[in-house]
Amino acid sequence: MSPPKDLIRLQHMLDYSREALELIQKKSRKDLDSDRVLGLALVRLLEMIGEAANRVSPEYQSTYMSIPWTQIIGLRNRLIHGYDAVDMDILWEILSQDLPVLVAELESIVLRTSDT
Predict the structure, then answer these.
(1) CA separation for the pair 88, 28 (Å, rounded)
(2) Could you tell me how far CA 80 lies from the centroid of its own chain?
(3) Collapsing DSSP states into helix, strand and coil, what is residue 64?
(4) CB-count burial class (<10 Å; 0-12, 13-18, 19+) for 81
(5) How far apart are CA 72 and CA 61, in angstroms?
(6) Is the pTM of this model over 0.85?
(7) What is the rounded CA–CA span in Å between residue 30 and residue 39?
(8) What are 54-101's pLDDT values in tens digits?
(9) Which sequence spans correspond to the domains of the chain?
(10) How far is 106 from 102, CA to CA, in rounded Å?
(11) How far, in Å, CA of 85 to CA of 78, rounded?
């Protein structure tokens, strides 16, 4: 059984991921250039996903190797420390291609672990 804090952090990751996907519904890559508030919100949500991932215990991370922990945490660090050089093309690719996969995986894990 996983520690409750790990489950809470996974739920945070899931919630923030879903929120980001909601924000990009019916949006295009060009919207990131024309809507500064949208871009800032999405960057912040990805930072929070990465921070929550960073707070998941190493033991729990090793239990769920299907989650790209290192990449998620690395993205958070890149966004925080490289705030002045965020590549919006890469950001859009992460949001539109990687995030839906992460949401599906997190949903599966949260469902399995909350049933036990």
Answers:
(1) 12
(2) 14
(3) coil
(4) exposed
(5) 12
(6) yes
(7) 11
(8) 999 999 999 999 999 999 999 999 999 998 899 999 999 999 999 999
(9) 4-115
(10) 6
(11) 9
Amino acid at 69: W
Which tens digits make up the pLDDT trace of 38-63?
999 999 999 999 999 999 999 999 99
43 and 16 Cβ atoms separated by less than 8 Å: no
Q: How far apart are CA 81 and CA 85, in angstroms?
A: 9
Dist. CA 62–CA 66, nearest whole Å:
9
Q: For residue 116, give the DSSP letter.
A: -
Structural contact between residues 26 and 85, judged by C-beta atoms closer than 8 angstroms? no
- Residue carrying the six token digits 């998620």: 72
